[in-house]
Design goal:
Elements: E1 2-11, E2 14-20, E3 25-30, H1 36-48, E4 67-75, E5 79-87, E6 92-97, E7 100-102, E8 114-117, H2 122-126, H3 129-143, H4 145-169, H5 176-216, E9 222-227, H6 237-247, H7 249-255, E10 266-271, E11 274-275, H8 276-279, H9 282-304, E12 309-313, H10 321-331, E13 337-341, E14 357-362, E15 365-368
Parallel strand pairs: 3-13, 3-14, 8-12, 12-13
Antiparallel strand pairs: 1-2, 1-4, 4-5, 5-6, 6-7, 9-10, 10-11, 14-15
Helix pairs in contact: 3-4, 3-9, 4-5, 4-7, 5-6, 5-9
The chain binds adenosine-5'-triphosphate and magnesium ion.
Length: 369
């Protein structure tokens, strides 16, 4: 899948912009605050209907305007015209594919797979378990509609059951039968979700090892561990889930919330069997984040049969030259890629080829170099 052109209207600092892209590497170069990340953000909107930065669409509207518009042409064998139009007056966002309004997220996600590596990826390896769950789910939801629907269903169940527990905690009502029904549903869809994640996570590990090997040539070996149901490692997930719920029953009623289930899962990353989150250096964290995104890319490519668009925001700053060179070499294998840089001068290893496009942003506007 190739994004051949992009048009932005009142999107952050971009009043009106039309860009044409290469099917290989696209460098977006310019000083701080000139709108490089905003261009990546608009591409992310086209593929996912939303921003990777904010959940507020209003924030994205150019100051003083009432809405923003993003138009993109994707081509494979056929051309798809996609647009996202947001109006802050009604707080309404419409997504069109070939002029047809798409209502359901599940009809959109996965059509144009996308992978983005940003400085915020620090959260994946350094942050909370919620950040890691979000990362894992965002990959798997693009690859499997079944998983996507299962996750929505499970999240709804957690919400309903938590509301019931909270009501019971405040002694508003005693609905033990209703709670039992929700508990059963939680165990049912939660166990299924864990099975999916187990399978997915062990598959992803292979891709991460491969990406790591290509970046570092085997000096460090990464591994991934899935931590679910308080560290359970056996095969009888449903039974263990049921036992744990029983064990935490009083605690759940006392605190008025759901304490057991895959909404508490965590994913542990290791290098040479040492916990990255606790002991990793800055560069090791960054390298791991890069490997995770390369792994995501090749996983999605394999599973969806479509080549994702790859976005890299500010990647090269924290890495030593050797690692940076290998990453840039690997980008040639990837497909269409968008890379933001503040400057080319210190990055002579990024060997530009004729088919690449360099878009320069400066105060007077946008030029192709
Ligand atoms: N809603 C908005 N309307 C107008 N301008 C905005 C809006 N939101 C952000 N901006 C401005 O638009 C620019 C967007 O910057 P962006 O994050 O894309 O810059 P960047 O080129 O990636 O910079 P850096 O190199 O620092 O990462 C910033 O100057 C920001 O202040
Ligand atoms: Mg930026």
């Amino acid at each position: 899948m190739i994004l051949t052109s992009l048009r932005l209207k009142n999107f952050r600092c971009h009043k009106e912009v039309l860009l044409n892209f290469s099917e290989n590497l696209n460098y977006i170069v310019g000083g701080n605050g000139l709108g490089k990340t905003a261009i990546l953000e608009s591409i992310y909107f086209l593929c996912t209907t939303k921003s990777q930065i904010t959940s507020s669409d209003k924030e994205v509207v150019n100051f003083g305007e009432i809405g923003f518009e993003v138009y993109g042409s994707f081509s494979n064998q056929v051309t798809d015209e996609v647009s996202v139009v947001f109006t802050s007056e009604t707080n309404k966002k419409n997504y069109y594919q070939n002029q047809k309004l798409k209502h359901r997220l599940s009809d959109i996600i996965g059509n144009f797979p996308i992978v983005i590596l940003t400085p915020a990826d620090h959260q994946i390896t350094m942050g909370y378990s919620a950040d890691r769950r979000k990362f894992i789910d965002s990959i798997y939801c693009q690859a499997s509609r079944t998983y996507f629907k299962l996750l929505l269903d499970y999240n709804r169940t957690v919400k309903q059951r938590a509301a019931l527990l909270n009501g019971m905690k405040e002694n508003k009502f005693n609905k033990a039968n209703e709670l039992d029904a929700w508990t059963e549903k939680l165990i049912e869809s939660g166990s299924e979700l864990i099975c999916y994640r187990k399978k997915f996570f062990s598959e992803l590990e292979t891709y991460v090892k491969q990406a790591y090997f290509e970046i570092l040539n085997d000096r460090e070996t990464p591994s991934l561990k899935y931590f679910y149901l308080s560290g359970y490692e056996g095969d009888n997930i449903k039974k263990h889930f049921t036992d744990l719920i029983e064990k935490f029953k009083n605690e759940e009623l006392r605190r008025g919330t759901c304490l057991v289930g895959p909404h508490k899962d965590d994913f542990v990353f290791e290098i040479n069997n040492i916990n990255l989150r606790t002991f990793g250096s800055q560069g090791q964290h960054k390298t791991f984040q890069v490997a995770l995104r390369f792994a995501e890319f090749f996983y999605l490519k394999e599973k969806t049969g479509k080549t994702p668009i790859f976005l890299l925001d500010d990647v090269f700053g924290e890495l030593d030259t050797k690692r940076a060179v290998r990453i840039s070499e690997n980008l040639r294998k990837v497909g269409q890629t968008f890379i933001t840089l503040t400057d080319f001068t210190n990055l002579s290893y990024l060997q530009r080829q004729n088919s690449d496009v360099v878009i320069k942003l400066d105060k007077s506007g946008i030029t192709y170099a």
